[in-house]
Structure formats: structure tokens, C-alpha cells
TrEMBL record:
Domain SDH C-terminal: 238-267
Broad class of enzyme this protein falls into: oxidoreductase
InterPro entries noted in UniProt: Aminoacid_DH-like_N_sf, NAD(P)-bd_dom_sf, SDH_C, Shikimate_DH, Shikimate_DH-bd_N, Shikimate_DH_fam, Shikm_DH/Glu-tRNA_Rdtase
Lineage: Bacteria, Pseudomonadati, Pseudomonadota, Betaproteobacteria, Burkholderiales
Limits of the Quinate/shikimate 5-dehydrogenase/glutamyl-tRNA reductase domain: 116-192
The enzyme's E.C. designation: 1.1.1.25
Quaternary data: Homodimer.
Organism whose genome encodes this protein: Pseudorhodoferax aquiterrae
Domain Shikimate dehydrogenase substrate binding N-terminal: 6-87
Protein origin, superkingdom: Bacteria
Family: Belongs to the shikimate dehydrogenase family.
Key words of the record: Amino-acid biosynthesis, Aromatic amino acid biosynthesis, NADP, Oxidoreductase
Stated name of the protein: Shikimate dehydrogenase (NADP(+))
Length: 272
């Protein structure tokens, strides 16, 4: 059977073998999907060894997303804008690179959570790798406005600058959010991984809106708790994003789109 894997460091906690294993079983695809503990600084060697052993594709996670970008011979537009790669496909000498995080997130919001972005005001907290991947797919949904806010304002400004001409994007600092409201608020900072709260004013949320934490499996993070306390009824964490980006990679590799709902239900961790 064809071989696939996720590579990262550390890789112990990864859910990808479980997700792709469920996809393969449900869609009748004959493949083996494993996890590889990558060696920092030796990504090209580890990827080459996997290819030599018959590997057809890799998912790539921290800290190798930039190494994978460099290793690729062809990169999609979204991988280029994200500046990071989370999926590789091997085709003879060719190494094709993709970034499915943003499309996976967008699909989760629009289809699974039934929360259209068209004409809505959208706020993204953070300007790192997680935020970068989401911006182009978000703009394709034609929001009324997409605001990027970051602690280091210069990073948000630079990112908005890269998107000039692609849609109604603006960048600002957290203080400038006073008095502004957003239908959809995404926490794409790494604050939740340390139990921290980005300095976002509670007034940005609206009750009919959506608060989405990109991190997965952290329960009710300080960000989600704040949103809940201001009366936001729809709260989500990154489980749907995780499964949807995996489904995008699976479809890219195998030409078959697996059902995601059973996998999301299996992996979901209660937010309370
Ligand atoms: P990732 O790939 O997860 O996005 P990253 O590229 O290191 O990680 O980016 C982390 C993001 O979280 C940045 O936008 C960072 O803000 P700065 O650019 O100002 O550092 C943001 N971040 C991390 N901790 C934060 C906190 N406690 N409050 C607000 N923003 C935070």
C-alpha cells in the first residue's frame, strides 16, 4: 500500500495518523499513514529517506513548515502567501507543496458551523504563521472587512500590505479595537497554548457572532471564556480546522474526498 506520514518534532501528540486512518477506512483507500519524529536541521534528509522507502506524501508540522517550503520544487499560491507548507506530494522528482490550514479553517466555519463570512466583519488576532494561512481563503469569502490585529503592530501592517488588492484588509493594534464590533473573531495567536489572553477588548464581540479558537483541545481557553461571558453563543475550537485540513490533503493525494463529520465528532473535546 502507498505510504504517507506526518513529520514534526516533537510528534508524539499528533492526531494525524488517527484522522487519516479513519479517512482511509471509510473511503476504502489502501494506504498506511504513520508519524515521523523529524530531526531539527535534517528535514531534507528525513524527507528523502521517506521518499526512498516509498513515501508518497507528507504532512508537515512544527518546526518544519519552513523547511518543507524550501524543500519543495513547486508551491501553490496559498503556500507561498502563508510562507509555510503543511502538505507535500511526491511525484517522481517533483515535490509539490500546499498549505491547507486556511482552506480547512474556512470550510469548517462556512460549512460545518454554517457561518457565512460574506458581507461580515471579520477580526483575526495574531499575525504569525497561523494567521497568515487563513487570510487569503477568508478574503475569497468576500467579507465586508477583514481586520488583522497584533501585539507587534508592524507585523500586522506588513501582512495587510502583502494583501493589498486582494480585498478589504486593514491592520491595527489592540487599542484601536475599542468601539468596534465584529461578527466573527478568530484567535490565531499562540497565547492560548500558555493559558494567556490576547489584550482584545470584550466589546469586539456580538451575541449573534462566532468566536473561534484555532488551537485544538485546550477546552474553554481565556479567549473563549471571555467571548462566552460577553454573551457570544457560538464558540468553536480548532478541531474542525484540524480535520478539514487533513481532508484537503487526503483529497489532494488520493483524489477522494472523505467525510469529515464522524472524525470531528470522534476528536472533539468538550469546551466546558
Ligand atoms: P504561530 O505559527 O502559531 O502563529 P508565531 O508565528 O510565533 O506562531 O506567532 C504567534 C502569534 O501570537 C503572534 O502574532 C504573536 O504576537 P507578536 O507578533 O506581537 O509576538 C501572538 N501572541 C503570542 N502570545 C500573545 C499574547 N499573550 N497576547 C497577544 N498576542 C500573542
Amino acid at each position: 500500500s502507498d505510504r504517507y506520514a506526518v513529520i514534526g518534532h516533537p510528534i508524539g501528540h499528533t492526531k494525524s495518523p488517527l484522522i487519516h486512518g479513519m479517512f482511509a477506512k471509510a473511503s476504502g483507500q489502501d494506504l498506511v499513514y504513520t508519524a515521523i519524529e523529524g530531526r531539527p536541521g535534517l528535514f531534507a534528509e528525513d524527507a528523502a529517506a521517506f521518499r526512498a522507502a516509498g513515501g508518497r506524501g507528507l504532512n508537515v508540522t512544527a518546526p518544519f513548515k519552513l523547511d518543507a517550503f524550501a524543500y519543495a520544487t513547486e508551491r501553490s499560491a496559498r503556500a507561498s502567501l502563508a510562507g509555510a507548507v503543511n502538505a507535500l506530494k511526491f511525484d517522481g522528482e517533483r515535490v509539490l507543496a500546499e498549505n491547507f490550514d486556511g482552506v480547512g479553517l474556512t470550510r469548517d466555519v462556512v460549512r460545518n458551523l454554517d457561518c457565512a463570512m460574506q458581507g461580515k466583519r471579520v477580526l483575526v488576532l495574531g499575525a504569525g504563521g497561523a494567521a497568515r494561512g487563513a487570510l487569503l481563503p477568508f478574503l475569497e469569502q468576500r467579507p465586508a472587512e477583514l481586520v488583522i490585529v497584533n501585539r507587534t503592530v508592524a507585523k500586522a501592517l506588513a501582512l495587510a500590505q502583502e494583501l493589498v488588492g486582494q480585498g478589504p484588509v486593514r491592520a491595527c493594534g489592540y487599542q484601536e479595537l475599542e468601539g468596534q464590533r465584529f461578527d466573527l473573531v478568530f484567535n490565531a495567536t499562540s497565547a492560548s497554548l500558555r493559558g494567556e489572553l490576547p489584550p482584545v477588548p470584550a466589546t469586539v464581540f456580538v451575541p449573534h457572532g462566532l468566536a473561534y479558537e484555532l488551537a485544538y483541545g485546550k477546552g474553554l481557553t481565556p479567549f473563549l471564556r471571555m467571548a462566552q461571558q460577553t454573551g457570544v453563543r457560538r464558540l468553536a475550537d480548532g478541531v474542525g480546522m484540524l480535520v478539514e485540513q487533513a481532508a484537503e490533503a487526503f483529497a489532494w493525494w488520493r483524489g477522494v474526498r472523505p467525510a469529515t463529520q464522524p472524525v470531528i465528532e470522534r476528536l472533539a473535546v468538550p469546551l466546558a
